[in-house]
Design goal:
Double-stranded beta-helix, 8-stranded mixed sheet, 4-stranded antiparallel sheet, AtsK-like
């Protein structure tokens, strides 16, 4: 079996590893693929260092973790559906996206803590991300582990939210952010909306996901997305909203001390467990352009549902 270099992501963290030595050749070895998969299940995220930066490598690496899944929103930009099926482009052209001000700094492509596809009943297992065009300032992707959060969350607050479902809706505009909003936050310029996007969003029923869930391996996971959250199911009132806001602010606090901040290098690829981790984006200067390619790995935990008993397959089919 080819020798891989595996080391902790960061000494003070209970999640994540760095892996070196991955090549297209050794990814054909079933034992190497299994070794990488086993580490991922245990640690929740992997930074692949000094790895070939090619479409072929990103696709081959992605298949280690499962089949690719198409993005559930048709309006999201695809890289090349024939050459790279399932690969989406996350691109912020200079001076074109939404802009917010956080702590006095104006930022484009800022995103709060979230998990992907919270607005549907079916999540994805993971995402594999690489930087195609880097920025010098900002552009940091941050990660929080739901297992670590559960074990370090304020106990009284955890007891209040455990057993609850959170309601989500496909809303990407900054002005729809309701919970855990930073104190020094203001919208400078709204995000542009892609043609057809709002029609898709309006046609989708809201989704519900548990605030805490139990992995097959027994660990408890705190899993609440600040982005797109609408409220607590059955408690969408002042009291419920106050509780969810308190939970989201506590997540922000943990993010200050227990998160991993990845400053991208042109030789990195990264995967995170979307059923376990939250991630956030620091944003970058509005005048800079940043481009990322992401593959999405199919695999759900089976705990999400759509409001009103809607058919998830029918909804997703209409969104492709």
């Amino acid at each position: 079996m080819s020798e891989l270099s595996i080391k902790p992501l960061q000494d003070n963290l209970t999640f994540g590893v760095r892996i070196g030595g991955v090549t297209l050749d050794n990814l054909r070895d079933p034992a190497v693929r299994q070794q990488i998969e086993d580490v991922f299940v245990e640690r929740g995220m992997i930074v692949f260092e000094d790895i070939e930066q090619s479409d072929a490598m990103q696709l081959e690496l992605s298949t280690v973790f499962g089949p690719l899944k198409e993005h559930p929103v048709k309006a999201v930009t695809r890289v090349d559906s024939e050459r790279m099926p399932g690969v989406v482009e996350i691109r912020t052209p200079a001076n074109s996206g939404g802009v917010v001000e956080v702590d006095g700094m104006q930022l484009s492509h800022w995103l709060p803590w979230h998990f992907d596809h919270c607005y549907t009943d079916e999540l994805n297992r993971a995402g594999v991300l690489r930087a195609v065009k880097l920025v010098e300032v900002g552009g940091i992707t941050r990660f929080l582990d739901g297992i670590d959060m559960y074990n370090n969350f304020p106990p009284e607050l955890l007891a209040k939210i455990e057993g609850s479902d959170v309601v989500y809706r496909l809303e990407t505009q900054y002005e729809t952010l309701r919970f855990g909003v930073p104190e020094n936050f203001r919208i400078v310029r709204p995000k542009p909306t892609a043609p057809g996007f709002q029609e898709i969003a309006d046609a989708m029923p809201r989704a519900l996901h548990p605030a805490v869930w139990t992995r097959p391996t027994g660990e408890q996971v705190l899993h609440v997305s600040l982005y797109m959250a609408q409220g607590i199911a059955g408690s969408e009132d002042a009291e419920g909203d106050a509780l969810l806001d308190e939970v989201c602010k506590a997540i922000n606090e943990l993010g200050k001390t227990r998160s991993y901040e990845h400053k991208w290098k042109p030789t990195d690829m990264l995967i995170w467990d979307n059923l376990r981790m939250l991630h956030a984006v620091s944003g970058n200067r509005p005048e800079d352009e940043r481009t990322m390619y992401r593959t999405t790995i199919k695999g759900d935990y089976g705990l999400g549902r759509l409001e009103g008993g809607a058919d998830g397959a029918a909804v997703q089919g209409s969104a492709y």
